[in-house]
Amino acid sequence: MKLTVLGCLGAYPYAGQGTTSYLLQTDDFNLLLDAGSSTLLELEKELDPLDLDAVILSHYHHDHIADLGVLQYYWQLFPTEEPKPLLPIYGHTEDEFHFNDLSMENVSEGRPYFESEELKLGPFLVTFMKTIHPVPCYAMRFVEVKTGAVFVFTGDSGYLEGFNQFAKEADLFLADTYLFNGHEHHKAHFTAQEAGSFAKTARVKKLVLTHLPQQGDLAVLREQAQAAAGTIPVDLAAPHKKFEI
Ligand SMILES: [Zn+2]
Ligand SMILES: [Zn+2]
Q1: 156 alpha carbon to ligand 2 midpoint, in Å?
Q2: Averaged pLDDT score across all residues of the chain
Q3: What is the pLDDT of residues 178-200, one digit of tens each?
Q4: Which of 87, 219, 232, 234 could form a disulfide with 226, with the two C-beta atoms 3.0–4.6 Å apart?
Q5: What per-residue confidence (pLDDT) applies to 79?
Q6: What's the CA-to-centroid distance between 147 and ligand 2, angstroms?
Q7: Position 58 confidence tier, pLDDT thresholds 50, 70, 90
Q8: Alpha helices of 60-139 — where are they, by DSSP H?
Q9: How far apart are CA 236 and CA 177, in angstroms?
Q10: Whether 63 contacts 10, CB under 8 Å
Q11: Percentage of residues in the chain having pLDDT higher than 90
């Protein structure tokens, strides 16, 4: 599978860059993972948005769903000769208002996922773990059935011991790192040291920092995570950066 970063800032867009959104692809499947601000514009640079097979959302904070509505309008209004299939949008059901918004007549269909159930989603098997966050949010572990490759996305999360197991031996660990060291055990996000330490304990193959802060030196953020991660390579997400998994 291949991961392409579309947006990787936390909270709000800044200086030409959008918030959380990724494209996860195999040879024949295109999955949009979160849909933060500027998703649609960045997505158009990678593929025809109508070639998406599904969307999956970690949670309903604005920086993860800001472009969902305009993506639905695109599916509704972009002219095509054939009628378009419904776009499946997966989300949790613990926020009825937002879950109901995933369905739009003749456009998209909200589909629930649950922490207790493995989800078969195209070429992936996906499992979920509820994170530490002010609203319900889920981390996701994707296994590509054909290759066995594993990709783990934290969603948004404060320090949570469970990641040592949930991220175990992942080929790529994409971790919310909104905070520099000194803010450990925050209620919503990891610090760089925490991201690095989970990566090390879980023995992942590669750590990528995302949900990045607008202020501060990202080279320092990466160094702080690297210091905790030991020999595990640590990289920073950036728009249109691609990772083979
Ligand atoms: Zn966020
Ligand atoms: Zn959030």
Answers
A1: 5
A2: 98
A3: 999 999 999 999 999 999 999 99
A4: 234
A5: 96
A6: 31
A7: very high
A8: 62-65, 68-77, 96-101
A9: 10
A10: yes
A11: 100
Question: Within its chain, how far is the Cα of 48 from the centroid?
Answer: 20
pLDDT score for 114: 98
Angle subtended by helix axes 192-201 and 218-229, to nearest 10:
30
Query: Which residue from 50, 65, 41, 30 is spatially nearest to 239, judged by alpha carbons?
Result: 41
Q: What pLDDT shows up at residue 130?
A: 98
140 in Cβ contact with 128 (< 8 Å): yes
- Give the pair of three-digit tokens for residue 169: 């031996």
- 30 forms beta bridges with 25
H/E stretch holding 128 reads strand 124-130
Kindly list the strands in the beta sheet with 172-176, ordered across the sheet, starting from the edge strand earlier in the chain.
Answer: 119-121, 124-130, 138-144, 150-153, 172-176, 207-210, 234-236
Those residues whose beta carbon sits under 5 angstroms from the ion ligand 1 are: 61, 63, 156
